[in-house]
Amino acid sequence: MKKLIQAFAAVFLTAMALLYFVSYLNSSQGYSGDNTLTVYNWGDYIDPELIEKFEKETGIKVIYQTFDSNEAMMTKIAQGGTTFDVAVPSEYAVSKMKEEGLLVPLDHSKLPNLKYINPRFLNLSFDPENQYSIPYFWGTVGIVYNPDMLGGKKITSWNDLWDKDLRNQILLVDGAREVIGMGLNSLHYSLNDTNKAHLQEAKQKLDALTPNVKAIVGDEIKMLIANEEAAIGVVWSGDAAEMIWENEKLDYVVPKEGSNLWFDNMVIPKTAKNIEGAHKFINFMLDPKNAAQNAEYVGYSTPNEKALEYLPKEIANDERFYPDLDSIDNLEVYENLGKRMLAYYNELFLEFKMHRK
Ligand code: N2P
């Protein structure tokens, strides 16, 4: 009997210790309900000081995690088992997530700062009435290049990149739609083409670019180009802006065949535990001073009209990064091409990456 009691006591104590340990782990990872908020964003896409400011203002602790593609982010959210309260998908990903029931409708009464967003960024076709998504940053895809390293040569088109003199000079952003899109645009096809013969043609054209491609990289592309490790980068506009601040010899161009216009947005995924806090965070990021600080820090273009007043003129008036959208007609927004077609784009991109090895 005594042994039995001892055994029970041992089991009981172990269980208590485990319980304590689990609750400790939860609180240290922040999953303790109303007082924490888990934000899932692109890498290098927020000023860390703003996270601190939000924590101070609200008493909510932020757990900050990053991803490097819409595809990776969507897979993780669809799988479940996470507690992301805010995420930042691009437009076609908002549409896909909506379709898959992965988003929580927003309560606009908790987002009074929404009034500062320029109306031309609201009510877009991927989310009419902004029921699920709030604009965060916008921009284009284009070519950043170093004229000095190219003997003064100017780059104006995608097709310039196939020049034999550019061996090992190009870095590509690690994005399926961006890279396949460059292949499509170079052939004057749409960025939303679903004709498999056209897509195969684009993939073959990209394979022919391989000798000129030094690497396919993530956020480190900024440092590599600014440090002149390569003369050319295919990049998102905001990354180019940051590189140009670092190295003023660089220039950025949206190729004449056409390119992508994108919109990134804050959403509340179905995995959210702190919906109240998520609205507070979104509203905080919409505050014009915060939005301006964020835009200045990350280099991307803000859709917040009022924030532009707080940005240095040389940023807000730079037409490379704040183009007049009414006067450009060769930009296309990615569409949600459906699960199977998006998977096909990913497959082609993977094959292209393998081909390089
Ligand atoms: C920032 C990535 C920007 C994403 N590192 C463009 N949609």
From TrEMBL:
Q: Which residues form a coiled coil?
A: none
Q: Where does spermidine bind?
A: Y92
A Pfam short name: SBP_bac_8
For this UniProt record, the keywords arranged alphabetically read as follows: Periplasm, Signal, Transport
Gene3D superfamilies referenced in this protein's UniProt entry, alphabetically: Periplasmic binding protein-like II
| UniProt-annotated location(s) | Periplasm
Superkingdom of this entry's organism?
A: Bacteria
Q: Which GO terms describe its biological process?
A: polyamine transport
Q: Which PANTHER family match?
A: SPERMIDINE/PUTRESCINE-BINDING PERIPLASMIC PROTEIN (PTHR30222), SPERMIDINE_PUTRESCINE-BINDING PERIPLASMIC PROTEIN (PTHR30222:SF17)
Q: Which organism is it from?
A: Paranoxybacillus vitaminiphilus
A single GO cellular-component term from the record reads: periplasmic space
This one is known as Spermidine/putrescine transport system substrate-binding protein
Q: Which InterPro entries match?
A: SBP, Sperm_putr-bd
Major subcellular site: periplasm
